[in-house]
Every structure is written in C-alpha cells, then in structure tokens.
Amino acid sequence: MKHPTQMDGPLFANIQRAGLFDLTVGYSPDWDIPVAEGYRCVPCPRRFLQRMSFLYHDCLASEKYDLVIIPGYARLDTNLLALAPHRQALGMRLDTAPIYPEPRWKSWCKGMVLRRFFHRFAAFHPVGSLAEQFLKGLKVSPSKIFRYPYAVDNAYLAERARHFVKGREQWLQALGIQSKAFVVLGVLKFVPRENPMELLKGFHLFHESFPDSALILVGAGPLQKAMEAHLTESKLDGAVRLVGYAKYSELPKWYAISNVFVHPAKKESWGVSVNEAMACGLPVVASSSVGSSYDLVHEGVNGYQYLTGDIKALADCLARIASRADRGRELGERSRHLINAWDFEATMKSLESALHMIRSEIAYGAAPGGVTRGQQN
Question: Residue 186 domain-assigned?
Fold first, then answer.
C-alpha cells in the first residue's frame, strides 16, 4: 500500500486486537496521519528497484505468509512481482467497477490479458458487488472470491456526529444559514471527475422549488473559481457555502448538520464518503457513476440514485426527501441500519475464510491456485 488511510488503519488495528490471524502491512513510508498505529507495519523503500527487491524477498520468496494481498492490478511494481516465479499464495483486492463505457477492442484486450494474469492469484477480494461482477465476467471461480467490503469506522463516525448535532443551530448560524433550512451536503474534490458543477446545477433547480434550502460543499480544487463564478451568475451566493477542505475528524460535523448527502461523481469506483454519510445517519443521493451506490443506496429506502448528467433527476431526488421532514429522518435511520452490515467485522470474517481455504489447500499438499506445492508458478 502507498500509505495508511482512514479506512484501512482502523481495520488493521481491529484485526490485531481480535487476534484472529497474524497481520503484517507493508507501506511506503509516508506517514503523516496516526492511522498507522496499533498493528505491525513494515516500511517499504521509496525507490522502485529497492522496493521491488524488498517486496520480492520479504513477501514472495520467503514464503513466511499464508497469503499476501496486493492492492489491485494498476501498479507496475506489484504486477511485476506477481509475474515473477513464486510459490507464495497471492490475493488481490480490487474495486473495479464495470459501469463505464470503453471501446470494445479495449475491453477485449484487457479481458484477454487479465484472464491470464489472474491465474497467478489464489484469492480475490472485491470491495463490492460491481468488482465481484467484474471478476466473474473474467471467469474467476466463485470459490476464489472473498468479499473485502469497503468499510469505515462506523462507531467513531456515529459518535462524532451525535456530538456535533447538539450544536447544529449554532454551526448553521455561524455560516449564515437558518436552522430550519433543508441542508444539502457535498464532500468532494473540486475536480472534473468528482463533478461539483453538476451538484451546483442540480441544487439550483431544487432551490427554485425549495427556497428555504442551503448547500454546503466541503472540499477544494482547481474548479473553485469556476464554481464561484457560477454562483454569482445564478444568484446562488446566499444559498451555497464553500467551506474548504476539512480534516477527517471534522467531517462528522458537516454530516451532522446536514439533511442529505449527495455524491455526483462522473467516475468513482466506490466512493467511501457514502459510507461515512450513512454512518452519520444521512439519506444519500448518488449518481449512477458512483460504484458504492449499487450496494449501499437502496432506492426509496435510504436514498436515491440518478442518471449521471441528469440535473433535473438530481433535483427531483432532493425534492422527494425535502417534501416531508419525517421522510428524511426515516431514510437516514435506514442508512444507519444498512451500513452496519458494512463494517470491519464483515471484512475480518471474509479474510478469515480466505485464509482457511488457503491453509486447507496447503495441508492437502497443493499450492493455492492448484499448482503442486514446491513447483514454481
């Protein structure tokens, strides 16, 4: 892994505390956040050749691990390592979402290459149903697939949100927003891929019918000037607040004082902010290009999905929630309930199942993946 994240760090610490299996995590030494604590970490060299040598000898040639999981197939270093001769059982965690159009020739070529490459792996760990669908489309055996659900620290986020919601009126007042306003929230980078302009335009349509509404955008990026110009031209300045970048510990405040969360990305293989919003008890509106919406957003149960690019559909989704005060609360409570199934415990159980399969194959004298133990694959 490149560096620890707010999702991975707490998960690894939970694995260590549970003691279900022995865990070692390899990271590039770029640690400026405290989530690399509570479990065994091995710093990897920064330079490519030194890192390759270290990873090969420590992770592959040593055969000291039952399973080595690499993060996807997009990294050159881990791809080369997987292609090197080894007897170590390899797993792959991936979040590929096969929902984006691409030329037929490209899809065919990628499929041909990946089918051969995937034979090097004993187990696969998709983060959600779309990644699992991608693997099955490439004829990966279901017996090799062990869900590695994207999870956040639900309890931490919920507790922080409960703390901040007590001061909702004061926080909104500080922003110049009335306490009775219906507050729409976006947490995203101001870049084309994350599509903040679509959220602004969808909110504009919604605001025309619900003038007692406000939009809070948490984030920063190169599109900010264009967004500010749009706000001036559309006379939305008084209803929209660009509050800048927020540290992870501050995010629950923004979820806590809002009524609905929107993820408008054009291309997002997962979108962990959907998990965060649900843990904080918010209904979610997400574009059809957000991978997590296919697993986490249940239509009319805890939110809505709209077709990417359709700002009227986005506005209509917001209107369905805002039209009844109790409706938003119901959807939010269901979000909180649904996200409980996407937790660290589910990930740990899945990893335990994968290890059980690997150890069973080793016990029967076969290397994971069907190659005789002792042969190089």
Answer: yes
